[in-house]
Each structure stands twice: as structure tokens, then as C-alpha cells.
Amino acid sequence: MESVARRGKFIVIGLDKGELVMHLGMTGKLLTAGVETTHTYGVFTLDDGVLLYEDPRQFGRIEWGDARVRRLGPEPLLVGLAEFSERLKKRKTRIKALLLNQTFIAGLGNIYVDEILFSSGIHPLAQASRLSEARAAKLHQAMVDTLTLAIEHRGSSISDYVDADGNRGNFQMLHRVYGREGEACVNCGTPIKKVVVAGRGTHYCPVCQRRPRA
DNA sequence: CAGATCACCTGCTTGC
DNA sequence: TGCAAGCAGGTGATCT
Q1: CA atoms within 13 A on the CB side of A169
Q2: DSSP A213
């Protein structure tokens, strides 16, 4: 093994034979300690130990080559406001669906999209191309701030997620809309709503995130 | 081509 | 208590 990198939700492992690209899906885990279980689908022998790949739901993938990675959009913590805003203008779809689209921007998942939209006061059904410059700027800032804070808290552990050492994250304690249906909005007290957008559970405050005009 | 929906799989929670 | 239905952090095939 010569290198390990991340791009979006993919882990790229450089080997002398080429690149091994992994995606953990929803329940995949790569562990440096532990024993094989019925859900262990890969065992990698390292010079100094073993790497176990577990994935109960089997939504994860391990493949050769970077074909998938090359199609990804920019990294959310690297893309500038100007480029982000330009890309938004070209898309007519609903902002929630667009932020989840990995070819638009890489690495955002359902939890973080809901939290980012809440922070920026944007309704999940808002049409991307119709966001004002000011709202696009707010969205960009919320994206950077939310991810930075989540990384500091080592991610969101709701049921399965742990890091490579088996440790849970803490960011779920700071979720303001995700998983809080019916609870009072931290800004205005209105009960948080949950609907389905782009096939995903979508949590938002109906007052702080105004529905766009049709 | 862009956008929307559904299928994929297992396990845990909910409600009767 | 038991069991079926519903739901879950993601994507990709397949429609329109």
C-alpha cells in the first residue's frame, strides 16, 4: 500500500498495481481490529496487521480504478463561492436533490444536507437556479461551517457509524433538524417537519425555511 | 441530457 | 409476546 486518500465519500487506496476505490455505502466499515463476522466481506492482509471490511446492508463497493471518482463534483471544503454559485445557476432541480448529487458536489449526505439547508434558511424544495446571490453565499458558508464543525466532532453516530478505531462520533448531539421531527425548532419553536424529497427523509423548519413561490 | 422514482439488502423499531 | 410493516447515513438502473 502506497497511499490512502479520500475523495467525496470514496476511499482511494494507492497500490503498486493500481488504485483500489472503496465506498462504504450506509453501513460499511473498515476496521483495523476485531474479528470476522457474517457480514465481513473483505479481509486485507497488511504488512503489519489486517483490515476488515464489514457491510451488513451490502450497499458498499470495492472496485479497481478511479472511473467513479473522476465523475465527482468539487469538494465542498475546497470549492469557492464563485464556482459554487455558477454551478447552482445551471440546475433547475430542487436544492435538496442537487446537494445530494455527487456529480454536483462530492461528499454531502442526507444528514448534512438537511443541517446545511436549515443553517442557511433555505427550503429543501427551492429551485437551485432561482436562489439569489445572497442565498447562494449563505448556503456556501453553511456548507463549510457545518462540515467543519461535524469533522471536529468526528461525525454523526446514529446507529452504525464508527471511525477506523471503532470510536463513535458526537455530531448527532448537534443536529438541529435531522431526526428531530415534531421537536421545537431551536430558532423559533415551531415543530420540525419531515417530508420525503428525492426519495429521502427530509427535515426542516417550515418557518425558518420558507417554501419558495411556485 | 436532466430529472424523478424505485430497487437493492439487512436489521432495528414501531404498532397492532 | 409475536409478527408484519416501516424505516435507515447511498447509489445506480431505468423510466419520462
Answers
A1: 21
A2: P
Asked if strand B contacts A94 at the CB level, meaning under 7 A, the answer is: yes
Q: Is A80 exposed, middle or buried (0-12, 13-18, 19+ CB in 10 A)?
A: exposed
CA A209 from chain center: how many Å?
Answer: 20
For residue A98, give the nucleotide whose C1' atom is nearest its CA: B3
Give first-to-last CA distance, chain A, whole Å.
53
Task: Give yes or no for CB of A37 within 7 Å of strand B.
Answer: no
Nucleotides of B under 7 A from a protein CB: 2-12
- Closest nucleotide over all strands to A197 (CA to C1'): B4
Q: How far is CA A180 from CA A11, A111, A170, A183, A206, in A?
A: 30, 11, 16, 5, 13
| Cβ neighbourhood burial of A31 (10 Å; 0-12, 13-18, 19+) | middle
Per DSSP, the residues of A56-87 read TT---EEEESSHHHHT----TTT--HHHHHHH
Q: All 3 cell numbers of residue A115?
A: 443541517
pTM for the complete prediction? 0.96
Note the pLDDT tens digit of each residue in A56-111.
999 999 999 999 999 999 999 999 999 999 999 999 999 999 999 999 999 999 99
